[in-house]
Protein backbone atom coordinates (compact mmCIF):
# COMPACT_ATOMS: atom_id res chain seq x y z
CA UNK A 1 0.00 0.00 0.00
CA UNK A 2 1.36 3.39 -1.04
CA UNK A 3 1.84 5.86 1.84
CA UNK A 4 -0.02 9.03 0.73
CA UNK A 5 2.84 11.38 1.69
CA UNK A 6 5.14 9.66 -0.83
CA UNK A 7 2.62 9.25 -3.65
CA UNK A 8 4.36 10.71 -6.70
CA UNK A 9 5.02 9.31 -10.22
CA UNK A 10 8.75 8.99 -9.59
CA UNK A 11 8.23 7.17 -6.28
CA UNK A 12 5.69 4.87 -7.93
CA UNK A 13 8.32 4.10 -10.60
CA UNK A 14 10.97 3.33 -7.96
CA UNK A 15 8.59 1.05 -6.05
CA UNK A 16 7.46 -0.71 -9.24
CA UNK A 17 11.07 -1.44 -10.13
CA UNK A 18 11.69 -2.71 -6.62
CA UNK A 19 8.59 -4.93 -6.73
CA UNK A 20 9.71 -6.48 -10.02
CA UNK A 21 13.17 -7.22 -8.68
CA UNK A 22 11.87 -8.47 -5.32
CA UNK A 23 9.49 -10.84 -7.08
CA UNK A 24 12.25 -12.14 -9.37
CA UNK A 25 14.58 -12.82 -6.43
CA UNK A 26 11.80 -14.19 -4.20
CA UNK A 27 12.60 -11.68 -1.46
CA UNK A 28 10.98 -12.43 1.90
CA UNK A 29 7.71 -10.45 2.38
CA UNK A 30 8.96 -8.93 5.65
CA UNK A 31 12.02 -7.49 3.94
CA UNK A 32 9.90 -6.20 1.07
CA UNK A 33 7.82 -4.15 3.48
CA UNK A 34 10.87 -2.75 5.27
CA UNK A 35 12.71 -1.75 2.11
CA UNK A 36 9.80 -0.06 0.35
CA UNK A 37 9.40 2.60 3.04
CA UNK A 38 12.05 5.24 3.85
CA UNK A 39 13.63 4.98 7.28
CA UNK A 40 13.26 8.72 7.97
CA UNK A 41 11.62 11.61 6.17
CA UNK A 42 11.94 15.20 7.37
CA UNK A 43 10.04 18.23 6.08
CA UNK A 44 11.20 21.66 7.22
CA UNK A 45 9.98 25.22 6.69
CA UNK A 46 12.66 27.77 5.84
CA UNK A 47 11.73 31.41 6.51
CA UNK A 48 14.23 33.66 4.69
CA UNK A 49 14.56 37.41 4.72
CA UNK A 50 14.77 38.46 1.09
CA UNK A 51 16.91 41.33 -0.17
CA UNK A 52 13.85 43.62 -0.32
CA UNK A 53 13.21 43.11 3.42
CA UNK A 54 10.24 40.76 3.10
CA UNK A 55 10.17 37.25 4.60
CA UNK A 56 9.46 34.30 2.33
CA UNK A 57 9.01 30.71 3.50
CA UNK A 58 10.42 27.82 1.46
CA UNK A 59 9.92 24.09 2.04
CA UNK A 60 12.86 21.71 2.40
CA UNK A 61 13.18 17.92 2.66
CA UNK A 62 15.68 15.28 3.76
CA UNK A 63 14.88 11.60 3.32
CA UNK A 64 17.02 8.72 4.57
CA UNK A 65 15.87 5.54 2.90
CA UNK A 66 18.17 3.02 4.57
CA UNK A 67 21.27 2.96 6.79
CA UNK A 68 21.77 -0.77 7.35
CA UNK A 69 25.12 -0.78 5.50
CA UNK A 70 26.52 2.51 6.82
CA UNK A 71 25.81 6.25 6.95
CA UNK A 72 23.32 7.43 4.37
CA UNK A 73 24.51 9.40 1.36
CA UNK A 74 22.75 11.55 -1.20
CA UNK A 75 22.60 14.89 -2.95
CA UNK A 76 20.64 18.05 -2.25
CA UNK A 77 18.45 19.30 -5.07
CA UNK A 78 17.17 22.88 -5.47
CA UNK A 79 14.21 22.80 -7.85
CA UNK A 80 10.79 24.41 -7.90
CA UNK A 81 8.94 21.18 -8.72
CA UNK A 82 10.33 18.74 -6.15
CA UNK A 83 8.23 17.17 -3.40
CA UNK A 84 8.61 14.53 -0.70
CA UNK A 85 7.69 11.64 -2.99
CA UNK A 86 10.32 12.48 -5.59
CA UNK A 87 13.00 12.91 -2.92
CA UNK A 88 12.02 9.54 -1.39
CA UNK A 89 12.36 7.83 -4.78
CA UNK A 90 15.82 9.30 -5.32
CA UNK A 91 16.85 8.17 -1.83
CA UNK A 92 15.67 4.62 -2.58
CA UNK A 93 17.65 4.48 -5.84
CA UNK A 94 20.72 5.71 -3.95
CA UNK A 95 20.40 2.77 -1.54
CA UNK A 96 20.52 0.24 -4.38
CA UNK A 97 23.27 2.20 -6.15
CA UNK A 98 25.70 2.26 -3.22
CA UNK A 99 25.09 -1.43 -2.55
CA UNK A 100 25.54 -2.34 -6.21
CA UNK A 101 29.00 -0.76 -6.49
CA UNK A 102 30.09 -1.83 -2.99
CA UNK A 103 30.32 1.60 -1.35
CA UNK A 104 29.55 1.34 2.42
CA UNK A 105 26.63 3.77 2.48
CA UNK A 106 22.86 3.76 2.59
CA UNK A 107 20.68 5.99 0.45
CA UNK A 108 19.45 9.51 1.18
CA UNK A 109 18.34 12.60 -0.71
CA UNK A 110 17.39 16.15 0.12
CA UNK A 111 16.06 19.26 -1.50
CA UNK A 112 14.47 22.65 -1.30
CA UNK A 113 11.45 23.64 -3.34
CA UNK A 114 12.92 26.73 -5.02
CA UNK A 115 14.07 28.06 -8.37
CA UNK A 116 17.59 28.95 -7.29
CA UNK A 117 18.19 31.06 -10.40
CA UNK A 118 15.70 33.64 -9.08
CA UNK A 119 17.66 34.22 -5.86
CA UNK A 120 20.57 36.56 -5.30
CA UNK A 121 23.78 35.08 -3.88
CA UNK A 122 22.93 36.50 -0.46
CA UNK A 123 19.44 34.99 -0.55
CA UNK A 124 20.84 31.66 -1.72
CA UNK A 125 23.35 31.63 1.13
CA UNK A 126 20.70 32.47 3.73
CA UNK A 127 18.40 29.77 2.36
CA UNK A 128 21.20 27.18 2.33
CA UNK A 129 22.41 27.96 5.84
CA UNK A 130 18.86 27.86 7.23
CA UNK A 131 18.23 24.54 5.49
CA UNK A 132 21.50 23.13 6.86
CA UNK A 133 20.59 24.28 10.36
CA UNK A 134 17.13 22.67 10.15
CA UNK A 135 18.41 19.27 8.95
CA UNK A 136 21.45 19.41 11.28
CA UNK A 137 20.10 16.70 13.66
CA UNK A 138 20.03 14.19 10.79
CA UNK A 139 23.35 14.86 9.06
CA UNK A 140 27.02 14.35 9.87
CA UNK A 141 30.05 12.39 8.63
CA UNK A 142 28.96 9.28 10.51
CA UNK A 143 25.19 9.69 9.95
CA UNK A 144 24.26 11.24 6.59
CA UNK A 145 26.56 13.02 4.14
CA UNK A 146 24.91 15.44 1.66
CA UNK A 147 26.35 16.28 -1.76
CA UNK A 148 25.58 18.33 -4.85
CA UNK A 149 22.66 17.64 -7.18
CA UNK A 150 20.50 19.63 -9.60
CA UNK A 151 20.53 23.32 -8.66
CA UNK A 152 23.37 23.05 -6.14
CA UNK A 153 27.15 23.31 -6.50
CA UNK A 154 30.40 23.38 -4.55
CA UNK A 155 29.62 26.80 -3.08
CA UNK A 156 26.34 25.50 -1.63
CA UNK A 157 28.23 22.55 -0.15
CA UNK A 158 30.78 24.98 1.37
CA UNK A 159 27.98 26.88 3.13
CA UNK A 160 26.48 23.64 4.44
CA UNK A 161 29.88 22.41 5.66
CA UNK A 162 30.50 25.75 7.40
CA UNK A 163 27.05 25.84 9.00
CA UNK A 164 27.50 22.29 10.30
CA UNK A 165 30.98 23.13 11.58
CA UNK A 166 29.70 26.22 13.38
CA UNK A 167 27.14 24.07 15.17
CA UNK A 168 29.74 21.62 16.51
CA UNK A 169 32.51 24.17 17.09
CA UNK A 170 35.22 22.89 14.75
CA UNK A 171 35.80 22.23 11.05
CA UNK A 172 34.20 19.01 9.78
CA UNK A 173 35.17 18.60 6.10
CA UNK A 174 33.59 15.13 5.95
CA UNK A 175 30.11 16.52 6.68
CA UNK A 176 29.45 16.98 2.94
CA UNK A 177 31.06 16.05 -0.36
CA UNK A 178 31.36 18.04 -3.56
CA UNK A 179 33.14 20.86 -1.69
CA UNK A 180 35.79 23.24 -3.06
CA UNK A 181 39.33 21.88 -2.89
CA UNK A 182 40.34 24.57 -0.38
CA UNK A 183 38.16 23.05 2.36
CA UNK A 184 38.64 19.34 1.73
CA UNK A 185 37.09 18.71 -1.66
CA UNK A 186 38.46 16.01 -3.93
CA UNK A 187 40.14 16.20 -7.31
CA UNK A 188 37.95 14.60 -9.95
CA UNK A 189 34.68 15.04 -8.07
CA UNK A 190 33.05 17.53 -10.44
CA UNK A 191 33.48 15.29 -13.49
CA UNK A 192 32.97 12.01 -11.61
CA UNK A 193 29.43 11.14 -12.70
CA UNK A 194 30.16 11.96 -16.34
CA UNK A 195 33.44 10.03 -16.32
CA UNK A 196 31.68 7.02 -14.81
CA UNK A 197 29.02 7.23 -17.53
CA UNK A 198 31.75 7.10 -20.17
CA UNK A 199 33.56 4.22 -18.41
CA UNK A 200 30.51 1.93 -18.44
CA UNK A 201 29.48 2.99 -21.96
CA UNK A 202 32.90 2.03 -23.32
CA UNK A 203 32.65 -1.34 -21.56
CA UNK A 204 29.23 -1.93 -23.13
CA UNK A 205 30.64 -1.06 -26.56
CA UNK A 206 33.47 -3.57 -26.10
CA UNK A 207 30.93 -6.20 -25.06
CA UNK A 208 28.81 -5.54 -28.15
CA UNK A 209 31.79 -5.27 -30.52
CA UNK A 210 31.16 -1.61 -31.39
CA UNK A 211 34.18 0.33 -32.67
CA UNK A 212 34.81 3.69 -30.99
CA UNK A 213 35.69 5.57 -34.17
CA UNK A 214 32.35 4.57 -35.68
CA UNK A 215 30.32 5.65 -32.64
CA UNK A 216 27.84 8.53 -32.59
CA UNK A 217 26.56 9.86 -29.27
CA UNK A 218 23.53 11.93 -28.25
CA UNK A 219 23.37 13.52 -24.79
CA UNK A 220 20.11 14.89 -23.40
CA UNK A 221 20.92 17.51 -20.79
CA UNK A 222 24.01 19.72 -20.69
CA UNK A 223 24.35 20.41 -17.00
CA UNK A 224 27.19 19.08 -14.88
CA UNK A 225 26.68 15.42 -15.81
CA UNK A 226 25.77 15.90 -19.46
CA UNK A 227 28.50 18.43 -20.27
CA UNK A 228 31.27 16.33 -18.71
CA UNK A 229 29.92 13.21 -20.42
CA UNK A 230 29.93 14.94 -23.81
CA UNK A 231 33.42 16.36 -23.22
CA UNK A 232 34.97 13.04 -22.22
CA UNK A 233 33.20 11.15 -25.01
CA UNK A 234 34.62 13.71 -27.46
CA UNK A 235 38.09 13.35 -25.92
CA UNK A 236 38.16 9.55 -26.26
CA UNK A 237 37.23 9.78 -29.95
CA UNK A 238 33.47 9.35 -30.17
CA UNK A 239 31.41 11.69 -32.35
CA UNK A 240 28.88 13.66 -30.28
CA UNK A 241 26.17 14.57 -32.76
CA UNK A 242 23.47 15.95 -30.47
CA UNK A 243 23.05 17.65 -27.09
CA UNK A 244 20.27 19.58 -25.39
CA UNK A 245 19.47 21.81 -22.44
CA UNK A 246 16.44 23.77 -21.20
CA UNK A 247 16.35 25.75 -24.47
CA UNK A 248 16.10 22.74 -26.78
CA UNK A 249 18.43 20.51 -28.78
CA UNK A 250 21.42 21.02 -31.05
CA UNK A 251 22.27 18.57 -33.86
CA UNK A 252 25.23 18.21 -36.19
CA UNK A 253 25.54 14.88 -38.05
CA UNK A 254 29.27 15.50 -38.60
CA UNK A 255 29.89 15.93 -34.88
CA UNK A 256 29.57 18.95 -32.60
CA UNK A 257 32.60 21.01 -31.62
CA UNK A 258 32.28 20.18 -27.92
CA UNK A 259 35.19 22.37 -26.68
CA UNK A 260 33.67 25.42 -28.41
CA UNK A 261 30.21 24.52 -27.09
CA UNK A 262 31.56 24.30 -23.54
CA UNK A 263 33.16 27.73 -23.90
CA UNK A 264 29.78 29.06 -25.04
CA UNK A 265 27.77 27.53 -22.17
CA UNK A 266 30.29 28.57 -19.51
CA UNK A 267 28.89 32.07 -19.89
CA UNK A 268 25.37 30.85 -19.08
CA UNK A 269 24.21 30.87 -22.70
CA UNK A 270 21.91 28.10 -23.99
CA UNK A 271 23.25 25.53 -26.43
CA UNK A 272 20.72 26.58 -29.08
CA UNK A 273 22.38 30.00 -29.40
CA UNK A 274 25.82 28.57 -30.16
CA UNK A 275 25.30 28.31 -33.95
CA UNK A 276 27.30 25.07 -33.93
CA UNK A 277 24.50 22.93 -35.32
CA UNK A 278 20.83 22.67 -36.27
CA UNK A 279 18.33 23.61 -33.57
CA UNK A 280 15.87 20.80 -32.84
CA UNK A 281 13.42 19.96 -30.05
CA UNK A 282 14.22 17.74 -27.07
CA UNK A 283 11.72 15.24 -28.44
CA UNK A 284 13.52 15.11 -31.79
CA UNK A 285 16.86 14.75 -30.03
CA UNK A 286 15.79 11.54 -28.28
CA UNK A 287 14.92 9.89 -31.59
CA UNK A 288 18.11 10.78 -33.51
CA UNK A 289 19.85 7.87 -35.22
CA UNK A 290 22.89 7.18 -33.00
CA UNK A 291 25.00 4.47 -31.42
CA UNK A 292 24.61 5.70 -27.84
CA UNK A 293 21.80 7.75 -26.32
CA UNK A 294 22.54 9.25 -22.91
CA UNK A 295 19.60 10.85 -21.07
CA UNK A 296 21.27 13.12 -18.50
CA UNK A 297 18.40 15.44 -17.61
CA UNK A 298 15.39 14.58 -15.43
CA UNK A 299 13.30 11.47 -14.80
CA UNK A 300 10.69 9.83 -17.04
CA UNK A 301 11.90 11.17 -20.39
CA UNK A 302 11.60 7.86 -22.25
CA UNK A 303 8.02 6.65 -22.11
CA UNK A 304 5.66 4.31 -23.93
CA UNK A 305 4.95 7.18 -26.31
CA UNK A 306 8.49 7.56 -27.66
CA UNK A 307 10.30 4.30 -26.79
CA UNK A 308 9.37 2.75 -30.15
CA UNK A 309 10.99 5.68 -31.94
CA UNK A 310 14.42 5.51 -30.29
CA UNK A 311 17.19 4.69 -32.79
CA UNK A 312 20.15 3.80 -30.59
CA UNK A 313 22.00 0.57 -29.81
CA UNK A 314 22.93 1.53 -26.26
CA UNK A 315 20.92 3.56 -23.77
CA UNK A 316 23.11 4.81 -20.91
CA UNK A 317 20.96 6.28 -18.14
CA UNK A 318 22.99 9.17 -16.71
CA UNK A 319 19.83 10.68 -15.17
CA UNK A 320 17.85 9.12 -12.33
CA UNK A 321 14.81 7.18 -13.52
CA UNK A 322 14.71 8.44 -17.13
CA UNK A 323 12.87 5.35 -18.42
CA UNK A 324 9.37 4.30 -17.37
CA UNK A 325 8.34 0.69 -16.72
CA UNK A 326 6.30 0.58 -19.94
CA UNK A 327 9.17 1.98 -22.00
CA UNK A 328 11.53 -0.55 -20.44
CA UNK A 329 9.45 -3.40 -21.84
CA UNK A 330 9.42 -1.85 -25.32
CA UNK A 331 13.18 -1.26 -25.34
CA UNK A 332 13.87 -4.80 -24.12
CA UNK A 333 11.76 -6.29 -26.92
CA UNK A 334 13.64 -4.10 -29.43
CA UNK A 335 17.00 -5.37 -28.20
CA UNK A 336 18.38 -2.03 -27.06
CA UNK A 337 21.17 -2.53 -24.51
CA UNK A 338 20.34 -0.52 -21.38
CA UNK A 339 22.90 0.50 -18.77
CA UNK A 340 20.57 1.27 -15.83
CA UNK A 341 20.82 4.49 -13.87
CA UNK A 342 21.94 2.95 -10.57
CA UNK A 343 24.99 1.63 -12.40
CA UNK A 344 25.54 4.26 -15.09
CA UNK A 345 25.51 7.34 -12.84
CA UNK A 346 27.21 5.77 -9.81
CA UNK A 347 30.51 7.56 -10.53
CA UNK A 348 29.34 10.52 -8.48
CA UNK A 349 28.78 8.59 -5.28
CA UNK A 350 31.95 6.54 -5.83
CA UNK A 351 34.14 9.65 -5.94
CA UNK A 352 32.08 11.22 -3.13
CA UNK A 353 33.11 8.17 -1.12
CA UNK A 354 36.73 8.87 -2.09
CA UNK A 355 36.33 12.48 -0.92
CA UNK A 356 34.83 11.38 2.40
CA UNK A 357 37.66 8.88 2.96
CA UNK A 358 40.27 11.56 2.20
CA UNK A 359 38.59 13.99 4.63
CA UNK A 360 38.48 11.39 7.41
CA UNK A 361 42.10 10.33 6.87
CA UNK A 362 43.36 13.88 6.20
CA UNK A 363 45.31 12.40 3.29
CA UNK A 364 44.53 13.42 -0.29
CA UNK A 365 45.04 11.48 -3.51
CA UNK A 366 46.31 12.38 -6.98
CA UNK A 367 43.73 12.89 -9.71
CA UNK A 368 45.07 10.01 -11.80
CA UNK A 369 44.67 7.70 -8.78
CA UNK A 370 41.06 8.82 -8.36
CA UNK A 371 40.27 8.23 -12.03
CA UNK A 372 41.89 4.80 -11.96
CA UNK A 373 40.07 3.70 -8.81
CA UNK A 374 36.76 5.02 -10.18
CA UNK A 375 37.26 3.05 -13.37
CA UNK A 376 38.16 -0.13 -11.48
CA UNK A 377 35.09 0.03 -9.23
CA UNK A 378 32.52 0.99 -11.85
CA UNK A 379 33.74 -1.37 -14.58
CA UNK A 380 33.91 -4.24 -12.09
CA UNK A 381 30.29 -3.47 -11.14
CA UNK A 382 29.36 -3.40 -14.85
CA UNK A 383 30.84 -6.83 -15.57
CA UNK A 384 29.42 -8.31 -12.37
CA UNK A 385 25.97 -7.06 -13.42
CA UNK A 386 26.43 -8.30 -16.99
CA UNK A 387 27.44 -11.79 -15.85
CA UNK A 388 24.50 -11.92 -13.44
CA UNK A 389 22.09 -10.82 -16.19
CA UNK A 390 23.41 -13.50 -18.54
CA UNK A 391 23.29 -16.21 -15.88
CA UNK A 392 19.74 -15.35 -14.80
CA UNK A 393 18.59 -14.54 -18.36
CA UNK A 394 17.30 -11.18 -17.24
CA UNK A 395 17.86 -7.53 -18.13
CA UNK A 396 20.74 -5.35 -16.95
CA UNK A 397 18.26 -3.30 -14.90
CA UNK A 398 16.85 -6.29 -13.09
CA UNK A 399 20.34 -7.69 -12.53
CA UNK A 400 21.56 -4.39 -11.05
CA UNK A 401 18.49 -4.00 -8.84
CA UNK A 402 18.55 -7.59 -7.66
CA UNK A 403 22.22 -7.42 -6.69
CA UNK A 404 21.83 -4.08 -4.90
CA UNK A 405 18.66 -5.11 -3.08
CA UNK A 406 20.23 -8.43 -2.09
CA UNK A 407 23.20 -6.68 -0.45
CA UNK A 408 20.86 -4.46 1.60
CA UNK A 409 18.60 -7.40 2.46
CA UNK A 410 21.58 -9.38 3.75
CA UNK A 411 22.60 -6.47 5.97
CA UNK A 412 19.08 -6.30 7.44
CA UNK A 413 18.94 -10.05 7.94
CA UNK A 414 22.18 -10.29 9.91
CA UNK A 415 21.47 -7.13 11.94
CA UNK A 416 17.95 -8.26 12.81
CA UNK A 417 14.87 -6.22 13.71
CA UNK A 418 15.14 -3.76 16.61
CA UNK A 419 13.72 -3.99 19.24
Reading the helices and strands in chain order gives HHEEEHEHEHHEHEEHEHEEHEHHHH
**Beta-strand fraction estimate:** 15-25%
What is the CATH class name of the domain at 192-344?
Alpha Beta
Mean pLDDT: 96
> Largest sheet at a glance?
7 strands, mixed
Rg, Å, rounded: 21 Å
Per DSSP E runs of 2 or more residues, the count of β-strands stands at 12
Task: Let me know the CATH homologous superfamily of the domain at 192-344.
Answer: NAD(P)-binding Rossmann-like Domain
- Category from helices, strands and their pairing: alpha/beta
| CATH domain fold name of the domain at 192-344 | Rossmann fold
CATH architecture heading of the domain at 192-344: 3-Layer(aba) Sandwich
* Secondary structure: helix percent: 40-55%
How many DSSP H or I helices?
14
Q: In whole angstroms, how far apart are the ends?
A: 24 Å
Runs in which pLDDT lies below 50 for 5 or more consecutive residues are none
Approximate shape:
globular
How are strands sequenced across the largest beta sheet? 9-8-7-6-10-11-12
Description:
The structure is a single chain. This protein is α/β, with parallel strands linked by helices. Among the domains are: 37-173, Leucine Dehydrogenase, chain A, domain 1 (Rossmann fold, 3-Layer(aba) Sandwich); 192-344, NAD(P)-binding Rossmann-like Domain (Rossmann fold), CATH 3.40.50. The protein is built from 14 helices and twelve strands. The chain has helices spanning 9-24, 29-36, 84-101, 121-135, 154-168, 192-208, 224-236, 258-265, 282-286, 325-333, 341-344, 347-361, 367-392, 396-415, and strands spanning 40-49, 55-64, 72-78, 106-112, 144-148, 216-220, 239-245, 248-251, 278-280, 292-295, 314-316, 337-339. The strands form two sheets. It has a seven-stranded mixed sheet. Strands 1-2-4-3-5 form a five-stranded mixed sheet. β11 (314-316), α10 and β12 (337-339) form a beta-alpha-beta unit. α1 packs across α14. The chain is globular and about 55 Å long. The two termini are 24 Å apart. The mean pLDDT is 96.
Amino acid sequence: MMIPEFDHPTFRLAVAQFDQAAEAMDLHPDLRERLKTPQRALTVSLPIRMDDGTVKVFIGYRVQHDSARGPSKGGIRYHQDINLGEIAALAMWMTWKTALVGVPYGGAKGGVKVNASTLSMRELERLTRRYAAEIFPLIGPDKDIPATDIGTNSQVMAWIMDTYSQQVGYAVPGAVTGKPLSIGGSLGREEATGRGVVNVTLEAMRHLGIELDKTSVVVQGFGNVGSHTARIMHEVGAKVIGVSDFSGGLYNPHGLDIPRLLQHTQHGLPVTESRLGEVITNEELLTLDCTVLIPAAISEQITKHNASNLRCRILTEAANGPTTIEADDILRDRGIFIIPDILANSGGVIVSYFEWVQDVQRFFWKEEDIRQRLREIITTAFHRTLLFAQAKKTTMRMAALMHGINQVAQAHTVRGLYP
